[in-house]
Amino acid sequence: MGEEQKSNVILKMQHISKAYGGIKALDDVELEVKRGEILCLLGENGAGKSTLMKILSGVVIPNEGEVFLEGEKINIKNPNIAHEYGISTVHQELIQFPDMTIMENIYAGRYPKKNGLIDFKELRHRTEALMDELGIHFDPGEYVRNLSVAQRQLVEIMKALSFHSKIIIFDEPTSSLTSEETNILFKIIADLKKKGISQIYISHRLEDIFAIGDRISVLRDGKNSGGGMVKDMDSDQVIALMVGRNIENQFPKEQTEIGDVILKVENINNKNVKNASFELRRGEVLGFGGLVGAGRSELMRAVMGLDKASGKIYKNGQEIHNNTPTDAIRNGFALVPEDRKDQGLVLILSILQNIEMSSLKRLSKLGFMNKGQEKECADEYIKVLQIKTSSKGQSAGSLSGGNQQKVVIAKCLATNPEILILDEPTRGIDVGSKTEIYKIINDLAKKGVAIIVISSELPELLNISDRIIVMREGVITGEMKGIEAKEETVMKLATKGA
Ligand SMILES: Nc1ncnc2c1ncn2[C@@H]1O[C@H](COP(=O)(O)OP(=O)(O)OP(=O)(O)O)[C@@H](O)[C@H]1O
Ligand SMILES: [Mg+2]
Fold first, then answer.
1. What's the whole-number average pLDDT of the chain?
2. Residue 105 near residue 97, CB atoms below 8 Å
3. The pairing of beta strand 285-289 with beta strand 467-472
4. Which of 52, 61, 224, 266 has its CA 20 to 30 A from that of 448?
5. pTM passes above 0.85
6. Could you tell me the distance, in angstroms and rounded to a whole number, from the CA of residue 216 to the centre of ligand 1?
7. Tell me, what DSSP letter sits at residue 313?
């Protein structure tokens, strides 16, 4: 390699290994990043992406391996040292202080001072300068709790800039963004690249990778499995590197026999939902499309008794009252929530305990719960959903992001619902497991389970639904058959332009 090319490499990680108990999260991994490059780090759930990035940001200490920054070996003992070296992360789960302002969040622990006191004028001034750099404008004194996920992400990016970062790591940044917000983020990423800042970008959305990536590096089971320049690769090649096989049919939709109306929802009204009515049949997969924030989750939360709302719900023609989630579960409903971290999991409990928590009541009521069956039930879903664990006793909190989500889904399926509501079920889930989830949806529909899927991914929505309802600003704006639906039609109904 010539000198010129060599100096182009800003970061080199080599022989990195990290084990947790019996699991080798990383096994002799290497990673190279060039100046001003957008390197996409890909791999299935549990492949080791976040762990590798945590090592780079000083959060996790590896068992073995070296890191070189601009040719010099560095020792990233803690997150502060990572910042000093100019390495910053926009995390998968944003860690911020919601009750502090934007400017306080950015400069926490290193406020500008004047006469021993915090110099708020200077603090504001510096924050505004960062906003100018990104071409965004909000009040530096705004509380972070009042910000959207996208805005919080921008705060993290400003924080990274405030450290004069040479390398910024994005761990699944677009999973909760609207397409508009995603475009803003992509523009910022492109601007940072122009400034010569290197970026490592983790995502399960291949369209993101092809939109902004320069180069791809793939991990599989904690090892390097290959990579290449984005312009030289297609999605089949990338998927093959990730899963080690070709996925022939990403959307294995089967036509099932659709039965009688099991659920009728009438005039649901609250602050987020306006007069929403719909019907759902046994064996039917009903997709809900729309932009993030269109009121789809809120409608389902109302149906599940999680939020208060007026309106009526009928099951098999009889009015029921889901005043609380417990009522709803007793009435045969189950919900895989959108925000699985907050709503779906008890992170300190084991996977087995988490899966059983919801099914426990149901099974014991029917009088056939025993330890053997508990295990069987958990085993089955861990296998089907390919949940990567060292043991079923592993705490849910130490699973990779995507695997935590799979536990929530397993937990929900273990209740044997008649009406299953899945809110963005494949967000943060790798391609291979997505297909497994679609298969489960099919199988359940075949057994007569009535299924609602909220999805902001149009190809997914169109390919798995028998029927699609679109919402915008709390209102149902249209309905169509799955096979007749077109992306443009859904987008039109979902956005104001309609
Ligand atoms: N603190 C921990 N204790 C035990 N195991 C852990 C811990 N952190 C990570 N692991 C394990 O290391 C492996 C790699 O996890 P990691 O979070 O790096 O995956 P990932 O590639 O980021 O996956 P995802 O796409 O799901 O976010 C997983 O098997 C995970 O369970
Ligand atoms: Mg991760």
1. 87
2. yes
3. parallel
4. 266
5. no
6. 20
7. E
Choose among 345, 360, 497, 322: nearest CA to 407: 345
Report pLDDT digits (tens) over 448-492: 999 999 998 888 999 999 999 999 999 999 999 999 998 889 988
DSSP 3-state of 314: strand
Distance 1 CA to ligand 1 centre (A): 34
What is the CATH topology of the domain spanning 261-494?
A: Rossmann fold (3.40.50)
As a residue count, the chain comes to: 498
Q: Which of 156, 241, 178 is nearest to 206 (CA)?
A: 241
Q: From the CB of 253, is ligand 1 less than 6 Å away?
A: no
CATH 2.30.30.100 fits 3-243, yes or no: no
Q: Domain residues of the chain, as ranges?
A: 3-243, 261-494
Is 261-494 in the same CATH topology as 3-243? Answer: yes
Query: Dihedral angle at the C-alpha atoms of 219, 223, 229, 234, nearest 10 degrees?
Result: -50
- For residue 365, CA distances in Å to 330, 359, 370, 378 come to 11, 10, 12, 19
| Inter-axis angle of helices 371-384 and 351-366, nearest 10 | 130
Radius of gyration of the chain (CA): 24
Spell out the residues 6+ positions from residue 221 whose beta carbon is closer than 8 angstroms to its own.
27, 47, 48
HSE, side-chain direction, 13 A CA sphere, residue 210: 11
CB 201 within 8 A of CB 38: yes
* pLDDT: which is higher, 177 or 437: 437
Cα four-point dihedral sign 346, 350, 351, 355: negative
CA of 220 from ligand 1 middle (Å) equals: 12
pLDDT of residue 329: 87
Cα distance between residue 400 and residue 124, in whole Å: 37
Least confident of 92-96, 317-321, 388-392: 92-96
Backbone angles phi, psi at 36, to 5 degrees: 70, 15
